[in-house]
Design brief:
55% of the residues lie in helices and 23% in strands. The protein has helices at residues 2-11, 46-60, 62-78, 83-98, and strands at 14-20, 23-30, 33-41. The longest helix is centred in the middle third of the chain and has 17 residues, at 62-78.
Length: 105
């Protein structure tokens, strides 16, 4: 990940497992409350345009944003097995909006 990865490790409390090759995830919690969440991707990684595109759609579409918020709140209240379960359960919503991610090589 280079210099940026080293800086992120110094600033954030926790580096999560790679979400995919070249896609790192860092977080910082203060008194049990998530205050920061950062994705660091290699240049031209497929997730960059997907995450930014999804963000832009949520900003533009009030109904989509509300539907996604409702899903996330429901998943948060019913999640029993951590972040992996949460991510797996919200992925179909994102895939329905953005199309499926590229297949692994």
């Amino acid at each position: 990940m280079g210099d940026l990865g080293r800086v992120a490790q110094d600033v954030f409390d926790d580096r999560r497992t790679n979400l995919s090759d070249g896609h790192h995830f860092y977080r910082r919690d203060v008194w049990g409350v998530r205050t920061h969440k950062v994705h660091v991707c290699l240049t031209r990684h497929w997730q960059i345009s997907r995450m930014l595109g999804f963000r832009d759609l949520l900003r533009q579409d009030d109904d989509l944003r509300q539907e996604y918020q409702n899903l996330k709140l429901e998943l948060e209240s019913t999640n029993k097995h951590g972040i992996g379960e949460y991510l797996a359960q919200k992925a179909p919503f994102i895939d329905a909006v953005m199309g499926p991610p590229p297949t692994a090589k």
